[in-house]
Amino acid sequence: MAGDPPAMKRPKLEKDDSAHSHRPSSANGSGHRPPSSASISSASDAAPPEEDMAEEAVLALIAHRERVVEQYKLKLAQYQSLLDNAESELAVARARHRDRAPPSLNPPPPAPDRRTPPPVQRDPKPSQPAQKAPAPQTRPQLVIPGSNSRPAPRAPAPRTEPAPRPKKAADAPSSSSMPPQDRQRKADKKPKREIVQREPQNLIQSVRKSSPTILKFYGSHLVPSQHKRKLRCLELCPANDQLVVTSALDGMVTLWQVQSSGPTISSLSTTNCFSPKQRWPEDVAWHPDGDTIFAVYSADGGDSQVSMTNLNASGQKKVTFLPAKPHTKGIINNINFMPWSDTCFLTGGSDHAVILWQEKDDSWNHKRVHKDLHSSAVNGVAGLQQRKTIVSVGSDKRIISYDLSAERTEYKNLIDSKCMSVLLNPCDFNLYMVQTASPGRQLRLFDIRLRQTEVHAIGWKQSSSESQSALINQSWSPDGWYLSSGSADPVIHIFDIRYHGQTPCQSVQAHHKRVFKAVWHQTFPVLTSISSDLNVAIHKY
User: Fold this and answer.
1) Sequential DSSP letters for 90-141
2) Is residue 332 over pLDDT 60?
3) DSSP H/E element including 269
4) Does residue 39 sit in helix, strand or coil?
5) Which of 55, 237, 421, 485 is the most exposed place for a label (fewest CB within 10 A)?
6) Does the N-terminal peptide bond of residue 263 adopt cis geometry, omega within 30 degrees of 0?
7) Residue 234: per-residue pLDDT
């Protein structure tokens, strides 16, 4: 048997070179063939991996932002240093201006706070042309209607915060119909006065507890007062204690500037303040803004009772007289502004009355506080810092505390001598002083909380006269520890209320004749005094 024919082999399939080159050879048994270096280089240059590129970009961005932050920090520190230097130079320039040139009678506006945006940025909508404020300080009263008025349909209030004086702002929508000069006068009106609240101190607990602290004085400097008759008043400006004002029986009111360097004192202006009936001012007081001086006269003969001297005006408009004449007879002995946000002052007269004068718009309204509580002339009035209570003293030996809010008397205190003035302590709001006519015990200290209890009594003995003149007055030091007083002798008596004794802790030789008053300046250690020798003196301590 020839046998079966041989099995046929499967023929090989031919493949192209490109496919064969990528297929591993079965002969050598190796894996993938490694690509050539040339192919690797060309591939890397053409397209780098996306992950490497993203990481490098992020790192580069971080480095760039860090450099920007460091640059801005450096610039911020540099500008902050420049700002500090500029502010210090500005303060030095203002100090030199105050020392070398007559100061402005109006205090400069406060510098804008860098932490708050300008007022115009807080207004979300532009103001209408008729209500556009000509000056920044006029915006609260010209565009905000009062709470008791109905806003115009197409002119809503642009700001939501309440106006400082809503009652006065109720007339603001009609300001567009006013003449330009009236609208400007309305715009220039100042908002409600803000009182800087000071922390009250308890000085009463230290009264009469220790030995006195003696002040060292470095001499006095006398200047002719330029008054032709006896001086009557000396008052320190509450807004700028470089300014003082004096008045005399010649009817003149003189403005003075006291400079701490030296110290020196010089006259700035003199104004004739005679009343229409040719009466001199009996007493004067500064408006709290420091731009107007008020004076009181007599109620006899239908004469004007209160005058205003505008230090920024000139000519016939400088001195104006209030038309109201609420006092009925005699001299108006005292005028005193109250330490409250509502601008008002009190007057006490020989008709036994205490009158409250309140500023409203461009006029002053008056109200009789009481007339029957004193049986003789009212010589002094003052207002408490912490509440609307007034203290009045009179020749009837009475001290009366009256609550204005409740319109009732809080208490009456009858002492052993007639009262000639009252003065509240600037630091302890419960402590006040009453000047009496008792030799050796002229000054009495009281606590408003203890009512009729006397805290301390101090005084002096006079060698030239036994009588106590009502023209002699006192003044508290800024820290509230010392009292200065004039005297019938040519000396200034200084009392330390901490001293357990009843006599002055020191007496400063000041003038050639009796001293009427010596006031303490608030920002530099100087006393200014007036005397019947027609001189004004300054004393550095």
Assistant:
1) HHHHHHHHHHHSPPPSSPPPPPPPTTS--GGGG-SSPPPGGG--SSGGGHHH
2) yes
3) strand 264-272
4) helix
5) 55
6) yes
7) 97
